[in-house]
Structure formats: structure tokens, C-alpha cells
## 1
Amino acid sequence: MTEIVIKELISPASDVSFLNDIVALHEKAQRENSTPYLYSQDASFFERNLTGECLNSIALVDNTVIGYAALRRMDPWPSYLTPVNLPINTCGLMLINLVDPKWRGKGVGRKLCESRLSIAEQHGINHLFSTVHPENTASMQSLIKLGFTVLEEREMFEQKLRRCVLYLDLTSGNKLV
């Protein structure tokens, strides 16, 4: 059986070496429409993430990138989310969970999510948020199995995309205070 390795990227100087592979993975997912609710991003988004804007994880098989995930601190709070009464320095946003189309359904996305939960705890992020298209039932179910709850469904971004906002409290289960 092929081993899936999850690597936490913690060194922006070397992490950017994965940029082309991650951009190619994103383009493949768009081209094959394997992730129909994927918000389109350009290379600069991934470069900013890899050079310090986010805490990142990649999934590798035989040194080939098959998945990518990013976790961003909520400082500043993104304009498309409603701030809550929590210390901003303890809040994070799970931005993207990207899996190679041929590896979907094999637990890669779950492993990337679990990696971000671990990274969050290591970096003092106790309150996690995520947004998911309401018809993306696979992602919704994965996050709910990890303990997230759906707070609301609303339109976001300039494109007025429908998104469900999900929340997880890593310190006490699942309660938004």
C-alpha cells in the first residue's frame, strides 16, 4: 500500500519550493472540475501562504504533492466573516483543503484537516473557523466528524458565493462563547 505522508510546513524559506506543485494541483482540480466549489486562486495566494501568511500542510506520496491545506490566524479578522467575542490571537481560519482528484476519497483531506488541528494547538489557536459551500457534503461531513458545528449559511466574497461557516473550539469541545 502506498504511504501518504503529511508534512507540516514551518520554514517559509524552504516551503516556497512547493509553490509550483501546489499551483499545479490547484489548476488540475479546476481543470477536472473535481472540486466544483473550489474558490479560484492565483499563484500569489499560494506564495503568500507559503512565505509566512499561513501555517501549511502538504500531503505527499513518493515525494509528489497530492494535497495542500492552509491555516491562517484571524488577525486581522477577514471582512467576509462576522467577528465573534473571542480573543483574536486565539482564532484561526482553515482556508483551503486541496486534494489531487485521483486521491479523493482516500482519507487525504481528513489527514490534512487533522494536521491543521495539530498545528493550531501547537500555535495557541484554540478557535477554528472554516467556510464550505453548502452542497459540498463531503467536506461538510469531514469537518463535522472532526467536531465542527455549522454556525450559519450566508453569501460571501464579491461573487456572493453561498458558504456555511463552521466552528470548532479546541479547548472545550464545540461551544462558541
## 2
Amino acid sequence: MKRTFNFMKLAFLVIALISISCSPEDGRDGEQGSQGVAGQDGQDGTDGNANVVASPWFDEEFPNTASTSASFNRTDTAIDQDVANAAAFLVYGKRFTLGGTDIIVQLPVTDDERTYFYELFPQTNRIFFRAESVDKTTQFIFDDYAQFRFVIIPSNNSTGKGSSPDFSKMSYEEVMDYFGLTY
């Protein structure tokens, strides 16, 4: 019995030494198993600029008569109270040139003794475009800008690119490039 007990102790000691002295790096790696069945494709995420709204260019609708001021309205359901409360709202005017290069400026702008600006009326989903003579007495036909466009950048849109720049200080091209929008 004593002999069996000593044999068992010795066997246990040998097994313990073998298991302690072995490590995964000591042996050869087994062969790579075969590739498993491909899983189902996941749903695509939304683009980083998914919440940014850019209107198409639209023609100006100022009256074609000389006056000290003129105005027109544009209705768009994207112009709502949330936009008025918290979104960055940028408006651009486009002037066509003879050389084929369009000049695009951000409103409000004063140009050739004329000021162009806008107001939002979110209750009725409207943007109100207004032009005035700087001195309020000289009459003009307000046709400096042939088209207008607006861009809405919601405040909850961190743009996925860290802290957002001051879009109002960026050129039209910089804003379009930043969000990957068409000119």
C-alpha cells in the first residue's frame, strides 16, 4: 500500500512538472482551419452630412422695376423652428459673369450701394429675401444676383469631424467641400 502511495505521489509530481514546464511557444502551431461561411452584410451607416440640407440654386424673384427696396419669399419645409433656434443657416447669392466664372457670395452682402439680406419665418417655412439701397433714397433694379441657395447645418450635427469650424467665415467652396456637396 505504501508502495502504491509513493508511486502515486511520484506520478503526480511528474505530471505537475510537465504541465508547469510546458508553454504554448514550445510546440508547433497547428494548421489554419478552413474559412467559415461569410456572415450577413450589416446595414450601411448614414453619411456624415446626412442631416445637412442644401437647396438647389433658384432664380431671384425681385420685381424688375426701380425702387429703394425689393423683396421675395421662398417656401421650403426644411425651414422650421429647429432651424431658426439652433442650426447654422447659410445663404449664398450667385452672380453670372461674362468670363464664365460665377461669383458666389454669402448673404448678407453690400454690393454697389445695394444691400442683400434675408430673414427666416419658420412658422410658415419661408425665407424672405430683401434688397435695399444703402442710402434708402436711390432707386435700383435689384438684379445683381441671378440665383440664390441656402445650406442648413443642424447644431446636433457634429459633422463627425471633431469640432465644427465657423462656417460663416468659410468660402462657399470650402463649405461645399467640407460636406461633400455639389457646387
## 3
Amino acid sequence: MSMSPTIQTYLQKKGVAFDLMPHDRAVTAQRIARVAHIPGAELAKGVLLKSDHGYLVAVVPASHQIDLAELSHRLDERLGLASEAEASRMFPDCDPGAVPALGTAYDMRTIVDKRLDGIEDIYFEAGDHTTLVHVKRDAFARLMDGKTEHATIARRH
């Protein structure tokens, strides 16, 4: 597999310039950053969360982890990590475990950690465990479509 059709269509629809960056197979965000030779702060990882109201995608730098307590408090919802099976149902055109940072491409509620707002070069999984999409900061902002909330939702590993 390479880029998910949903992500590819969304990038084209938004008219965003991007590069594809192949890398050795890796599953965890920190490992992907290492094998791709990019800083973890520049790799936007998507994390699928579930609440009593449905699912949402939280997007944080690979160098950080979601602070579920803070995010639950901020959203006034009880949140938990979704299972890999749930992620496979929500993102059927992605490899298992490859949660896209572009929840917006799947019409999903998305919240982005503010740390990504100041990063010039942003990378995210293309839908598999061997390809990254590289975009500039302004393009990433367009992909988030103005519908996303931006907040401090993560802490360093």
C-alpha cells in the first residue's frame, strides 16, 4: 500500500503541494521519525479517541503523547483510546494501526496540539507504515480546514 485514496483525494481537493517520502517499515511514531530521519516534533501523529459522543482524532507531535486527562477536561468528555479494530473500521483504506493525522479528510472531529502550529515542515503518515506525506505549515493549516480546535493537549514522552 502507499497513500490512502481518501488522503490522496483530500490533498488534491485542497490543492495542497506535498511530497511523498518512503521510509523503512515502522509502526510507532517515534520509530517512524527515526527511520525517516526527521525530528519527532515535525511528525504529526494521529490518535483515534472515543468518547460517549463518538470518535475524534487528536493530532500531536511524535515527540509527545496525548494528555488524556487534560483533553478530557478541556472537552468535558470522558475519553479513551480506540482499539486497532475500531481504527480499522474508521479508516478502512489505511493499514491497520496507521491512524491518519488528517481526521478532516474522513469528516471526523479533529483537535491539533498547538506545538504543531509553529512547525514549518510537517510530516504525517500516508495511510501505511512505509510512506510519509510532507507539507509546509500553511498547507497543513489548510488541510485542517479551519474546523479543528488547537490546544495544548500533549506532554513530552
